[in-house]
Amino acid sequence: MPGMVAASETGGALQAKRVAILLCTYNGSRFLEEQLASICAQDHANWTIEVSDDGSTDDTKAIIGALQASASMRISAVKAGPARGFVANFLSSAQNASDSADYYAFSDQDDLWEKDKLSRAVAWLDTIDPAIPALYCSRTRLVDASNREIGLSQLFSKPPSFANALVQSIAGGNTLVFNQAARRLLADAGVADGVVSHDWWFYLLVTGCGGRVH
Which of 33, 107, 196, 177 is nearest to 206 (CA)? Predict the structure, then answer.
């Protein structure tokens, strides 16, 4: 059936989209392997990881180094962060990211990703004109130390907008996936002094510059 062929072609085109995962680390060795395993389990398979380590003194760098040799892990770069805290690390990771990806995803070191995290984000981002900055975010499933669910992050009722961004942050950094235009916007803004939350700053930038947020 023509509809089935079209759906298959669309799925193949989406799978071809390359996602660069910007993983920021700092003394996260006890969490890191679980997070990396959840990235490997993604149903969107075309991804690479770019690590920005902010001066870890535990086994974080050793774990990353050992896994970098694994073909399944696909760690394409390991860079030194600016050693000015997590905000500067995330902002600089976007500023210094490879320019060859279609989309980018921020990654904390101590999360677990649902297997369709990237595929859901890519499906929406691919509907937006690549020239328009676009930012995808979602709620977070909260878990205890044994990974048992204990609830969900807040469900925001107001639609994304610059007016909303002035008073409220709805885009949790651990959920952010964005297009090349948004990354360049963030890179052009630089690692701004005084920014206390990289995700809120990104939400402000994208909406303030006429971008789209989902």
Answer: 177
What does the pLDDT look like over 51-110, one tens digit per residue? 999 999 999 999 998 888 776 778 888 999 998 999 999 999 999 998 889 999 999 999
Both structure tokens of 37: 């395993």
Q: Please report the beta strands in 130-200, taking only residues with DSSP state E, as ranges in sequence order.
A: 134-136, 141-143, 149-152, 177-179
Other CB atoms within 10 A of residue 167 CB: 7
138 membership: H or E segment, kind and range? none
Count of C-beta atoms within a 10 Å radius of residue 197: 15
Q: How many CB atoms lie within 10 A of CB 213?
A: 23
How far apart are the C-alpha atoms of 191 and 209, rounded to whole Å? Answer: 17
143: three-class secondary structure by DSSP: strand
On whether the CB atoms of residues 93 and 64 are closer than 8 A, the answer is no
Report how far apart, in Å, the C-alpha atoms of 158 and of each of 76, 82, 133, 153, 161 are: 38, 35, 20, 15, 9
Indicate the helix (H) or strand (E) that contains 77: strand 75-80
**C-alpha to C-alpha distance for 137 and 200, rounded to whole angstroms:** 12
Q: Are 211 and 181 in contact (CB under 8 A)?
A: yes
Beta-bridge partners for 179 = 103
R_g of the chain, CA atoms, integer Å: 17
